[in-house]
Amino acid sequence: MKCYLLFAIALNIQRADSLLTFHRPVVKRQSVRLNVGISHIPPTKYDGSTVPDRTGKAASKNLSAFERAWRKYGMIAYIAHMCVAIPVSLIPTLVKAKFQLAPKAEIEHEALRVGQACARNLLSLIPFMNLKVIPYVSDEPTPTIWVSNHVSMLDTFVFLAADETLRGKNRRPIKVIYWKGLDANPICRILFSMAGFIPVDMEDNGNGNPNEYHPKSFKQMMKSTKQAITEGFDVLVLPEGQLNPRPEEGLQPIFPGAFALAKSSHRPIQLVALHGCHNMWHADENIGMKVVSRDVTIKAYPPLKNCETYEDFREAFTEVVGSFGSSGYDIPDDELRKWMDL
After folding, report:
1. Which of 158, 313, 297, 341 lies closest to 239 in space, CA to CA?
2. Residues 6+ apart with CB under 8 A from 129
3. Tell me: the pLDDT tens digits for 281-305?
4. 29: which of 87, 204, 248, 339 is 20 to 30 A away, CA to CA?
5. Rounded Cα–Cα distance for residues 169 and 34 (Å)
6. What's the confidence (pLDDT) of residue 234?
7. What rounded mean pLDDT belongs to the chain?
8. pLDDT of 336 above 70
9. Residue span of the signal peptide, if any (predicted)?
10. What angle do CA 328, 317, 336 make, to 5 degrees?
11. Is 16 exposed, middle or buried (0-12, 13-18, 19+ CB in 10 A)?
12. What pLDDT is attached to residue 190?
């Protein structure tokens, strides 16, 4: 426990420094443009022991049995340490919330930064994955609807750890729409509620099966999302609505909620693509924590253009995010330019 208290003290010193510099003038910097030009890779069948290579063929990453075991137990240790570090580090924020020492939006933003710092710092101490972040950083971030594929239970940790690099230090605070069933985990419940993440309740039908949302919960989710938009938060939506048990074959059916939110709030849509988490912790319960690769990539794209209808959004998300999520490579430049300004 002493080591976690020291971790929390160090984290809060870091937070105090960030709060002192929070209102300093922002230094302008050039937006990061994306590096494209990699050929499209068709999705391949996945048996839990191989990953697709540049040609789209199944190819082993040649991890030794020792490294597979080391990466797996490193992943378990990382998750276990997160379960202790987050609640300990959130104690000052919990005190502020209990005694109403700060506005609700400020407390939510602080809780989010705590979760991100825990995920980022612990990943540097327990580097069980090789995380590559390909950012898109705007000089002047505007309120945005972010959308991403959903391939593994590791996704949340990757989003938290990568967010500062992915969207830049001047990024806006973000709220995530998530499945309320995750609240069964007390650590998720503490962090998600403190950060103001937005739950939606649905039947636990298993990954890959149709979602059955509870109408009352869905209405509350829409109300909370509109409130978050009004308060200036960015919103992260997972349009597949659940974990994808077959990410190597492409995306699941895409729900129109993210597009509807963007249209009703007059906000741009920006895509985020994840690849590789499923090679460490697969959504297919028959595979589970079977590590076949240590490489994980998360990539942010510029705002979508030519996205006037839900069909446009679905096609863009499927082609851009679906391709990167299944193979780790972008579609060709000319096709990518069709959807965004590069």
Report:
1. 313
2. 71, 75, 123, 154, 276, 280, 294, 295, 296
3. 999 989 999 999 999 999 999 999 8
4. 339
5. 18
6. 95
7. 82
8. yes
9. 1-18
10. 65
11. exposed
12. 94
Helix (H) or strand (E) holding 175: strand 174-179
CA distance 167 to 300: 8
Q: CA separation (Å) from 179 to 34, 169, 183, 326?
A: 31, 28, 8, 23
Contact 304, 341 (CB under 8 A): no
DSSP helix/strand/coil, 226 = helix
Q: What is the pLDDT of residues 255-282, one digit of tens each?
A: 898 999 899 889 999 999 999 999 999 9
Q: Identify any residues that bridge with 133 across adjacent strands, giving them in sequence order.
A: 298
Task: Choose between 232 and 73: higher pLDDT.
Answer: 73
Q: Is pLDDT at 53 greater than 60 in this prediction?
A: no
Distance of CA 59 to the CA centre of its chain: 27
Classify residue 37 by burial, with Cβ atoms within 10 Å: 0-12, 13-18, 19+.
exposed
Task: Tell me what pLDDT residue 55 has.
Answer: 37
The pair of structure tokens assigned to 322 is 């679906």
Longest dimension (CA), the chain: 58
CA distance 312 to 18: 40
Torsion of CA 198, 204, 208, 209, to 10 degrees: -110
Question: What's at 12, amino acid-wise?
Answer: N
Please spell the DSSP secondary structure of 279-310, one letter per residue: GTS-SSTTT-S-----EEEEEEEEEB-S--SH
Q: 88-92, 197-201, 208-212, 294-298: which range is least confident on average?
A: 208-212
Give 154 or 36, the one with higher predicted confidence.
154
How far apart CA 100 and CA 115 sit, in angstroms, is 20
How many whole angstroms from its chain centre is CA 237? 9
Protein fold of 130-339? Glycerol-3-phosphate (1)-acyltransferase (3.40.1130)
Tokens of 63: 């991890």
Provide the token pair at 286. Answer: 């028959």
Strands (E), 40-173: 51-52, 58-59, 130-134, 145-148
The pTM for the full model equals 0.82
